[in-house]
Specification:
The complex is a heterodimer of chains A (494) and B (474). Chain A is mainly α. Chain A folds into two domains: 164 residues, no CATH class; 303 residues, no CATH class. Chain A contains 18 helices and no strands. Chain A is globular. The two termini of chain A are 16 Å apart. With 474 residues, chain B is of the alpha/beta class. Chain B is built from 18 helices and 16 strands. Chain B has a five-stranded parallel beta sheet. The longest helix of chain B is centred in the N-terminal third of the chain and has 28 residues. Chain B is globular and about 75 Å long. The N and C termini of chain B lie far apart (79 Å). The chains are: A mainly alpha (494), B alpha/beta (474). At the A-B interface, helix 18 of A face helix 1, helix 8 and helix 9 of B.
Chain lengths: 494, 474
């Protein structure tokens, strides 16, 4: 069930109304049933996987909690993490592994090994697996007590708003909230209003911006070999917009849905394209994943506690794993490695760059300095996105090569840009929607609050006008319906 | 408590506003026509007083082009209604009749069998949407979707959902919205389902029908549909007839139609087959738009035939003079006007043209002389004299409006200033002089009626329909 589908428009109000009407003790059970129904709408048989992950991590959590000695705790963590990663490997990475193995063995004349499995990638497997693994490690570290109530725990793993594409929640944040459902009424008018506003803006980002930008992106990346600098730059820029609007939009719908029910999910995006450095970017982009990697990969590897060289190595490894998490293909790995390189290069040259700026007498306080830094960060991120979006590393390099070597500035005036899938009207809609996105991002940046919360604080008439305009725009200009088949969230494949 | 009440009230008020907005927006983006150009037989049916329709015609474009209820009204006083829809498939025909009998009690329904020859899947996308969405959402429209799409296939279930919700299909219409998405097309108030066309092209009469007499075996779906139609006629108390209006059909389709005729005969249902048995004295040169569609001249012949047939075989009353049937009177008046415009279009000389124009006061006529150099002014002056044009006035050029038998000068060429003249609530005439043959000299709305290669341009604006119905250059 997609968030931007009529099914969800029907599903969510039904869930909400019964959630409000049911006695407190029954609420978690109701939400759990709804979450499993939500998951099974994609592929009922894969419910077995999430059930297994839930039970395995639940039991391991209890065993770790009961174990008195550290080696025993470690053993249970090792077993639990190993088993869950093995499942993830089998369903997500096995074909990739086999493909590479066959390539290597073919160099030595080895016979091709065919996969004995025909698995579809289970939706959201990377998200709920990481969330459950995070819980087990938290219990091991003593950050949280092992959860005894299986219903509460199962709901923590499968809570439908964030089940298939995050945010990847921490047990410390979500589990206590789930437990409190039985104790107090979490539903409030303020949560309803701000959650509703957040959902609407998320839908606008996804349906009006992301899916419209996608039309040009698909065209440019599919036929990159016939385009020059301008189209390829436009394609890269619009992909940067698309992936942000798509994923941040999805996260906002998840956050808004949960907030209406009184559950606060962690923020996943915080104006990432206003970042002043790559390090800053990763503190604002897919925050739930980047902090997960920080907490459960980077720090266990030693973090910055074991010297600079080790720190760089740890950073590099963390980004490499992050790339692999995004997809079982080398171009994702290169994307991760590139970001790792950016980070390490940034760390190594940081002081030198500071010195140069000081010597040149460049003032760091004006807006222009910060704008310049943000602009350079965007360019670096945008180049990396080409590797992410291109179907292969070869295509990504060819794309970038053409981008820098085929100047065709006349297309800016001969209107051929309107042949990239969006005519004048559609391009104007996208442009106006992007202006709205910038405005909302500025509000988020300046006011330090998410759009739903900001709107909830405004006067009633203003809020209503914004809500009604957003609904009208989504209904009219949203990309949905029979003529549009690509209404899939990008991050569902991860 | 008070605060809580206010919060609940604000949520309710917001929802009311939201549904009102969605309703208004839907009215704009909804699919409105059944035969193109915003003409909607469903809207016309909606505007018809209950239990006034005695005879109904159902079918594809063959029917809305070929059957004019106005002819039957004029000649016999029959209150007929044409419920044809472009590319109407058989299940749409069935459910459209079902929709009609909710508010009407027709005595006879004529169903054109051509709709049997293709299914929903074989229709073009526009016609699929038109047929699936022209009925208001109800149990009947849901049944239509189920009949055409089935519920076994997940993709079709999704389609059914989209058709029921409408928005997933119609929202992209924001790209093509026009005046009549915001306003009701005036004709939808009173037309009786037909479309008036005077376009003519010569056809080969041998191409009508396929000539095959072979009777094929009807499929289960064919039989199911025929039985459903028969059952509906029994339940609703109307007499069912089948028709085959003149058109070309494939050999295979003809064999199915032959079989349907035989099956109908066994059930005591008459089929009026104009591809074979009832070929009237159609004029291959004048009566057709193309091989599948009659024009107004051909339609008049066949509609007259139907009128006489109905009087002889169905117990119908002559409703002329009855106030409840004023829509039929208006419909007839519309036909007179369409015929008048056709005559204006067909006359050969300017004298005949202006003489005809001077007979009617239903139109605002814009006369523009933009080509300043001419030596045969006399010829034009003779013709325009019928509208009250003087030589002095004509000599300086410009634009005139002829309305209510009065000629008014609204613009003098080279006066240097733009002039405007209100034509209706939404349309104004804008006159300017940008030079000989230049665009922008005569504008009505966004349309340019400037003379292009003519010495004199005459634009005819229908005051009732509030739009230009004819432009001729001389």
């Amino acid at each position: 069930m997609l968030f931007n589908s009529i099914n969800y428009v029907i599903f969510f109000p039904i869930v909400l109304v019964l959630y409000l009407l049911l006695p407190k003790k029954a609420k978690p059970v109701w939400l759990l049933l709804c979450s499993y129904f939500f998951y099974m709408c994609w592929n009922p048989k894969y419910v077995v996987l999430i059930l297994f992950t839930t039970l395995a991590t639940y039991v391991c959590g209890l065993l770790i909690g009961k174990a008195e000695k550290v080696p025993a705790k470690k053993a249970w963590v090792g077993v639990c993490v190993g088993v869950n990663l093995a499942i993830l490997f089998l369903f997500k990475y096995f074909d990739f592994f086999l493909d590479n193995l066959n390539r290597i063995t073919s160099l030595f004349g080895g016979a091709e090994v065919k996969s004995p499995f025909e698995f579809l990638l289970p939706v959201g497997i990377s998200f709920y697996t990481f969330q459950a693994i995070g819980y087990v490690i938290d219990v091991y570290r003593g950050d949280i007590k092992a959860e005894k109530n299986i219903i509460d725990y199962a709901l923590f793993v499968s809570f439908f708003p964030q089940l298939v594409a995050g945010p990847i929640e921490r047990s410390k944040n979500l589990l206590p909230q789930i437990k409190s459902i039985k104790e107090k009424n979490l539903f409030t008018y303020e949560n309803l209003v701000s959650g509703f506003g957040t959902i609407l803006w998320g839908l606008f980002m996804k349906m009006v911006i992301a899916d419209r930008a996608l039309i040009v992106v698909d065209q440019v990346f599919a036929r990159y070999y016939q385009y020059g600098t301008v189209e390829l730059v436009l394609g890269a820029i619009l992909f940067s917009v698309q992936i942000y609007a798509d994923f941040a939009g999805y996260s906002l719908i998840a956050i808004g849905s949960a907030r209406i029910m009184g559950i606060r999910l962690m923020e996943n995006f915080n104006t990432p394209y206003f970042s002043l450095s790559i390090a800053d970017f990763w503190s604002k982009w897919h925050i739930s994943l980047s902090t997960w990697f920080k907490d459960y990969v980077y720090i266990p590897l030693g973090g910055n506690r074991k010297g600079k060289i080790r720190k760089y190595f740890n950073l590099f490894i963390t980004f490499l794993v992050s790339g692999l998490w995004h997809g079982a293909a080398w171009h994702y790995v290169v994307w991760g490695v590139l970001h790792g390189f950016y980070r390490v290069f940034g760390e190594i040259t940081g002081k030198a760059r500071e010195k140069i700026t000081d010597k040149l007498g460049v003032s760091k306080s004006p807006f222009s300095f910060r704008f310049g830094k943000a602009f350079i960060t965007c360019i670096l991120v945008g180049i990396a996105w080409v590797f992410f979006r291109a179907p292969s590393i070869g295509v990504a390099f060819a794309y970038l090569k053409r981008m820098f070597t085929r100047p065709d500035f006349w297309v800016l005036s001969d209107e051929s840009l309107y042949n990239l899938g969006l005519d004048r009207r559609e391009a104007a809609i996208l442009f106006i929607a992007l202006l709205a996105l910038v405005a909302v991002s500025v509000i988020r940046h300046v006011k330090k609050e998410e759009i739903g919360v900001f709107l909830a604080r405004q006067n009633l008439w203003f809020r209503w006008v914004i809500f009604l305009v957003l609904i009208a725009c989504i209904l009219l200009f949203g990309e949905y319906g029979t003529d549009f088949s690509s209404a899939k969230f990008i991050y569902f494949d991860f | 408590m008070k605060k809580k009440f206010l919060k609940i009230a604000s949520v309710i008020l917001f929802l009311v506003l939201l549904f009102f907005m969605i309703g208004r927006l839907y009215k704009v983006v909804s699919w409105k026509d059944t035969s193109g150009d915003y003409y909607s037989s469903i809207d016309q049916l909606k505007n018809t007083p209950g239990n006034t329709i005695d005879v109904v015609f159902v079918g594809t474009s063959h029917v809305y082009c070929g059957i004019y209820p106005s002819v039957m009204w004029e000649e016999q006083g029959i209150s007929a209604f044409n419920m044809a829809v472009s590319g109407q498939d058989r299940y749409s025909a069935y459910h459209d009749v079902k929709e009609l009998v909710k508010t009407q009690s027709p005595k006879a329904v004529f169903v054109d069998l051509y709709c049997m020859t293709y299914t929903y899947d074989e229709s073009i996308e526009g016609n699929q949407h038109r047929n699936m969405m022209c009925l208001p959402t109800s149990a009947n429209s849901y049944e239509l979707l189920k009949d055409n799409l089935g519920t076994e296939d997940a993709e079709n279930r999704e389609k059914i959902k989209e058709y029921l919700l409408r928005w997933p299909i119609v929202h992209t219409r924001y790209k093509e919205l026009g005046k009549y998405d915001y306003l009701d097309l005036p004709e939808n108030e009173y037309l009786r389902g037909e479309m008036v066309y005077y376009e003519t092209s010569a056809v080969n009469m041998d191409d009508i029908g396929s000539g095959s007499d072979i009777v094929s075996e009807l499929t289960d779906e064919d039989l199911d549909w025929l039985d459903k139609m028969v059952k509906l006629s029994e339940d609703s108390g109307f007499r069912l007839y089948f028709t085959m209006l003149p058109c070309s059909v494939s050999e295979e389709a003809q064999q199915t139609l032959n079989a349907a005729k035989v099956y109908a005969e066994e059930k005591g249902i008459v089929t009026l087959d104009f591809t074979k048995d009832h070929l009237l004295d159609f004029d291959a040169e004048r009566d057709f738009i193309d091989i599948a569609h009659l024009n107004a001249i051909g339609a008049k012949k066949i509609s007259s035939y139907f009128g006489e047939y109905i009087v002889q075989n169905v117990s119908v009353q002559d409703h002329r003079g009855d106030e409840r049937y004023e829509l039929w009177e208006k419909d007839l008046n519309y036909h007179y006007r369409a015929e008048f415009v056709h005559r204006l279009q067909s006359v050969g000389t300017m004298e005949e043209f202006t003489e005809l124009l001077s007979e009617s006061s239903d139109y605002t006529v814009v006369i523009s002389r933009e080509f300043t150099y001419d030596e045969s002014r006399e010829n034009y002056l003779n013709a325009l004299g019928a509208l009250g044009m003087t030589e002095e006035d004509f000599a300086v050029g410009g634009a005139w409006v002829y309305k209510d038998r009065t000629l008014t000068k609204v613009y003098v060429n080279e006066s240097g200033q733009e002039a405007s003249y209100p034509l209706s609530k939404y349309d104004s005439l804008i006159c300017a002089f940008n030079g000989d043959y230049q665009p922008g000299n005569i504008l009505i709305g966004n349309e340019d009626y400037s003379n292009r290669g003519f010495y004199l341009g005459i634009t005819v604006y229908d005051n009732e329909l509030e739009r230009v119905v004819l432009f001729r250059g001389f």
